[in-house]
Amino acid sequence: MNCCFIFFHGLYNAIHASKLQFFWNVVLKKANPVDTMNPPFTTSIDPAPAFFLDGDHPWEQVAPGIERKILGHTPELLGAVVRFDQGAGAGTAHAHELHDQVVYVLTGAFDVLVGQTRRVLRAGDAFVAPKTVWHEAIALEPASQLIDMFSPRRDDFFA
Question: How far is residue 71's CA from residue 149's CA, in Å, rounded to a whole number?
């Protein structure tokens, strides 16, 4: 037999078998499709950390001219919105030993340094600062805001 035929025949059988298993579990047994996935997923979560309602969270001052709200977090991820006065910023260039960081400019503008490259970023722009890469961001306009995302979660934000 042709090896391609054997490969595709085996692939067809595997797909067909998984469809039959799905049909058996979901249609005939009336199981939740989420319950039939591997690895197991869940539909249950405490609603408190699942949703962020802006009015429920006051701004927290973290440095002169810088305020933050934690949007949500898991052990692997943290999201926060950060508001800067004009001229305020993340201090001098710094790097994170353990955390990758993705930053999205929500409003205003920032003078951003990542590695050895400096750019002005405006609303809708973003930058990535992998762990150990030097970076800084200075607000160029009043009330400039960005969304900070860290992986893993920044536990020091809760100290």
Answer: 10
